[in-house]
Amino acid sequence: MKKIIITIFLSITLVGCSNSSYKTIDQAEAYKAMSLDDSIVVIDVRTTSEYNEKHIIDAINIPLDNIDSIDLDKNTTIYVYCQSGERSKEAAQKLTELGYSNVYDMGGINTWTYETE
Question: Rounded mean pLDDT of 42-47?
Answer without folding.
Answer: 98
